């Protein structure tokens, strides 16, 4: 007997408003009944389809057992087999006839089933308990370890704790349910949240793309929905490549890149993200491949010259990730004039992967135009453009991957006169993880003129 064939009567929503966490779950006890509308639909289907075809479908769907008499007989001997109340006795017998073949169909008895709160899904419970004026109920959430993150609408907020408790009850793997608030930390860009139900515990542990990540979800940015996007970008890197992750967050690009045999310089302005990044490097045993920094993103790129003094196996980067969609494009100008003429023949120019937002109808043209304005030169093919996800009305998160144009890299008159050149130090061959361990972890915070933070 499926939940889809049964309905739950409407309940008094005021009780759940007054008792959001300790509501009386016995209110959901009772005898369910099939919805009249569904009965009508099934009667219409019965008239439209061939009787023999209908019998075959019901036999498979209603019994839920293998098509053999011994299996069904054993099942009946041990427990009841319940059929949908929308079916008549004649329909059930017709459905069972092919299963029992030459044997007589067992006697059918009327049986009253009483179900309770545990039987119903979260959607059933919320539809029954919330006011009739609610045109829809929210049961979707993002899972981050033991934590469920919801994004409730304004009219649902009076019942937020009740909704959170139902989600917690119906998902036994969860221990904490939170709701996203509109307020966003303006410096580090993680959203603020409130506890709806469960433990006040935001220390999450997540495995993604072969790496473990541990962090305080209330203090850093993490989006489980971007797992495939993280994987897609990292898959473009091969062993021996070097990644410059300007807005690294807790490491969803840098650590998997390290696992692939790449070296990664990973930076984030948020001290809590940096702390989690250092910890995640340690628990994944990537200290010889991934090197953490806690600086402004533009200053981080400019200090590449200093990296040779800090890292014995320093090598120029071949990929750049910029995953701060609200302002990534603004930071692309740091690469204008970043390479001096004497490095032209010896250092490869990186491929830049820039995540950003666009509301334009032609998003590809919009993003290219904005980047070209920042770097002062046209982009060159190959340019790869990907529409990542919807983030709001007519607003999309996109990713553009392009090689740094030589005209921009070797521009002798960059807009920022103090932009540092890439050092032409050791262009060593081999895997970044095979060299000596780092001498130290640069963590100085340079004066900030334009801040960047955790990835989005």
UniProtKB/TrEMBL annotation:
InterPro entries: MeTrfase_TRM5/TYW2 (IPR030382), SAM-dependent_MTases_sf (IPR029063), TRM5-TYW2-like_MTfase (IPR056743), TRM5/TYW2-like_N (IPR056744), tRNA_Gua_MeTrfase_euk (IPR025792)
Subunit structure: Monomer.
UniProt keywords, alphabetically: Cytoplasm, Methyltransferase, Mitochondrion, Nucleus, S-adenosyl-L-methionine, Transferase, tRNA processing
Domain of life: Eukaryota
Protein name: tRNA (guanine(37)-N1)-methyltransferase
Chain positions covered by the region annotation Disordered: 1-71, 409-456
GO CC annotations on file: mitochondrial matrix; nucleus
Protein function: Specifically methylates the N1 position of guanosine-37 in various cytoplasmic and mitochondrial tRNAs. Methylation is not dependent on the nature of the nucleoside 5' of the target nucleoside. This is the first step in the biosynthesis of wybutosine (yW), a modified base adjacent to the anticodon of tRNAs and required for accurate decoding.
Chain intervals with Acidic residues compositional bias: 421-439
Family: Belongs to the TRM5 / TYW2 family. Belongs to the class I-like SAM-binding methyltransferase superfamily. TRM5/TYW2 family.
Lineage, uppermost ranks: Eukaryota, Choanoflagellata, Craspedida, Salpingoecidae, Salpingoeca
Localization of this protein: Mitochondrion matrix; Nucleus; Cytoplasm
The enzyme's E.C. designation: 2.1.1.228
Organism per entry: Salpingoeca rosetta (strain ATCC 50818 / BSB-021)
Name of the top EC class for this enzyme: transferase
């Amino acid at each position: 007997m499926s939940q889809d064939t049964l309905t739950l009567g409407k309940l008094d929503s005021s009780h759940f408003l007054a008792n959001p966490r300790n509501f009386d779950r016995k209110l959901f006890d009772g005898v369910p009944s099939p919805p009249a509308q569904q009965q009508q639909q099934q009667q219409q289907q019965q008239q439209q389809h061939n009787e023999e075809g209908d019998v075959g479908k019901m036999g498979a769907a209603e019994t839920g057992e293998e098509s053999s008499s011994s299996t069904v007989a054993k099942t009946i001997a041990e427990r009841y087999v319940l059929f949908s109340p929308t079916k008549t006795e004649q329909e059930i017998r017709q459905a069972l006839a092919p299963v029992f073949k030459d044997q007589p169909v067992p006697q059918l008895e009327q049986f009253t089933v009483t179900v309770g709160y545990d039987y119903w899904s979260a959607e059933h419970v919320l539809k029954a308990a919330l006011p009739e004026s609610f045109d829809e109920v929210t049961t979707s959430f993002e899972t981050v370890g033991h934590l469920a993150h919801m994004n409730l609408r304004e009219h649902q907020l009076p019942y937020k704790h009740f909704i959170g408790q139902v989600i917690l009850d119906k998902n036994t793997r969860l221990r904490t349910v939170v709701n996203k608030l509109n307020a966003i930390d303006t410096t580090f860009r993680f959203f603020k949240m409130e506890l709806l139900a469960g433990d006040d515990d935001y220390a999450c542990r997540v495995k993604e793309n072969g790496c473990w990540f541990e962090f305080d979800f209330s203090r850093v940015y993490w989006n489980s929905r971007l797992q495939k996007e993280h994987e897609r970008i990292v898959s473009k890197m091969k062993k021996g490549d070097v990644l410059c992750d300007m807005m690294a967050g807790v490491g969803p690009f840098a650590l998997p890149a390290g696992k692939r045999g790449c070296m990664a310089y990973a930076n984030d302005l948020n001290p809590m993200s940096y702390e989690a990044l250092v910890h995640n490097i340690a628990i994944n045993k990537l200290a010889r491949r991934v090197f953490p920094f806690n600086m402004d993103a533009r200053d981080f790129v400019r200090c590449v010259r200093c990296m040779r003094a800090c890292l014995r196996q320093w090598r120029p980067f071949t990929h750049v990730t910029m995953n701060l969609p609200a302002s990534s494009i603004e930071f692309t100008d740091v690469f204008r004039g970043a390479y001096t003429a004497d490095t032209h023949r010896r250092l490869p120019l990186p491929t830049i992967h820039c995540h950003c937002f666009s509301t334009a109808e032609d998003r590809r043209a919009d993003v290219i135009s904005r980047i070209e304005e920042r770097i002062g030169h046209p982009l060159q093919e190959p340019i790869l453009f990907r529409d990542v996800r919807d983030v709001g009305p007519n607003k999309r998160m996109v990713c553009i991957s392009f090689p740094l144009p030589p005209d921009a890299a070797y521009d002798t008159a960059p807009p920022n006169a103090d932009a540092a050149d890439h050092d032409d130090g050791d262009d060593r061959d081999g895997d970044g993880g095979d060299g000596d361990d780092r001498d130290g972890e640069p963590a100085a915070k340079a004066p900030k003129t334009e801040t960047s933070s955790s990835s989005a």
